[in-house]
Task: structure prediction
Amino acid sequence: MRVGSLLSLVRINLQREIRSVSFSAFGVALGVGSLVFFVSLGLGVEKVIREKLFAVDQLLVEVAPAAISLGSFGTPMNQSVIDRLSALPEVAAVFRKMNVRVPAMSRYDSDFFGSPLRMRLEILAVGVDPGLLKRDVQLGDFTDPPVDQPIPGVISSRVLEIYNKSFAPTRNLPQLSGHLVVGFTFPVEFNSSIVVPSSRGSPIRSQVQVVGLSDRALLAGITIPLASAIRINRAGLVDAETFSGATLVAKRADLVPIIVAEAKKMGLKIDDQERRLAESVGLAVTLTTSALALLSILICVLAAANIAQTLFASVRARAKEIGIMQSVGASRTDIRSIILTEAAAIGLAGGACGTLVALGLAHLADRLSGSYLPVFPFKPESFFSSPWSVLLGGVGLGVVAAVLGAYAPSRRAAATDPAQTLSD
Amino acid sequence: MISAHRLFKSYAGIHKAEVRVLEGLDLEVAEGEFVAVIGPSGSGKSTLLHILGGLDVHYDGQVEVAGTQLRGLSDRRLARFRNRLVGFVFQSFHLVPNLRVFQNVLLPAFFGGDSIGTSDQRRAEELLERLGLLAKRDRVPSQLSGGERQRVAIARALLRRPLVLLCDEPTGNLDLQTGDEIIGLFRQLHREGLTVLAVTHEERISGAAGRVLKLQGGVLVNSHDPQELER
Result:
């Protein structure tokens, strides 16, 4: 039996039973629609977590000296340790980090993008090898400048998001874009604090100019060139020899565990708090999504059961018709194909409708959230992510569920004894 | 054209008692013959027809129709045999209710293994025109009279140019005049060279047949000249 002939017969049969067909397709649409909706929601939220909230680079490994404990001083991270890390064959690059070990504060009393701002703020700062932030620096060189020049600083892109969505609205300050922030200069006093008085040395008055935003920058502070941090630490008479940590870049993501093991062997600790947090939140989202997806699949199973019941009734009612088709040349395979194709068509229609409705609801939910949900940090433009694989998978699931539901009825139809059904 | 040798057929009746309907039946029908098989109700006429047409495969014995040995044929080959070599005409017409007249006639072409082409459609139109139904090609069976329905069934049976026409009480549900018209049609088809085997208990058909066989006790026991039977 040719496909064209098969489809013609199926179309005629479906048109005749349009009511029960519509009901069966509705069941499939409900299951597939809810599955596509929830999976898209899960993927969307996961995307926000992965790309905005915890932008963890899979190739990066953060190492730090082990914490000092009783009877042990851990492994200080000096240049020889850095050299050993660089020599690991799995490591593509090592970027050193050194905290500014003296307190720092900013006294800002000036115009802030059109609004007057008076503020005292304790500041954390870390110095890094310039290569770590190379791709994110938008203004000048990320190197230690002459003493009378502002120190280039990179701020976390997440801090800007928190400022825009949380800090600025409550203090009537202007919203800032990344481009606007780059070039902004503010005063910083190193070796000075509004909380604790400095014990050694005199304050180092300087300025910091924002030269870029980066996910790799310190979240609650500023990231400056390593040479600047060393200079400030020396001036503050604190340790300017050992590093606070290092960022290792793996050659491939699958080599990360090996690097972690090697670093641990050297007595270093792995600072993967953010990665673990991202994984925990991601896992929670995945679990919730999976539970909802499972519920949706259950609806699809019920839809398949409904299709099975409908087709069983249909096959019983059409026994004579099946006998007639057999008498004019239909084989058992032909009969089975007709029933399965009918089910596939129901599944396809239900799956496509369900997917379209899910997309429509997702769009509506995004619009409603845009209009009615208050602005908050990392609020995405869309809570949904619907890649083609999810959409096609949804439609495919509808077809598979319907065909599975039709399997037993199709076998029963194919087993019809024409001699019996056509006996007058 | 039709050859059956030592056909046995039985089925489970009331209280699972075995009912034997065919008991070593032999039958030979030559090409172009019009043979009527008569017998009382329940004598096994329809069963015989179903076996000869490849609809019933649960029997013992040998059957050859239009050069095809039916015993042991796969379901696919048996379906092809029914599609290409034989045509069925039933007492209750057995048209598909939701298909229009034209689609009913065209139904065997759906299972022919080739795409339905213009030649199939032209053949269906020719048959409908010959049987006086072309004007009703877009009606559904429920909008036709009994005689018209049977003519549609005959057109369907002839679509694939079968070598054998198997008729099961073809006038059983028709009034006298319409029945005579249908019998006239069979005569005409027989004159054109078609082999016709009709099972019936109506003497009208046996009168039109070239040879009449009587099914009794599971075998074809009497063979009469139609005129002799009428006498």
In short: Chain B has a mean pLDDT of 87. The first helix of chain B runs from residue 45 to 52.
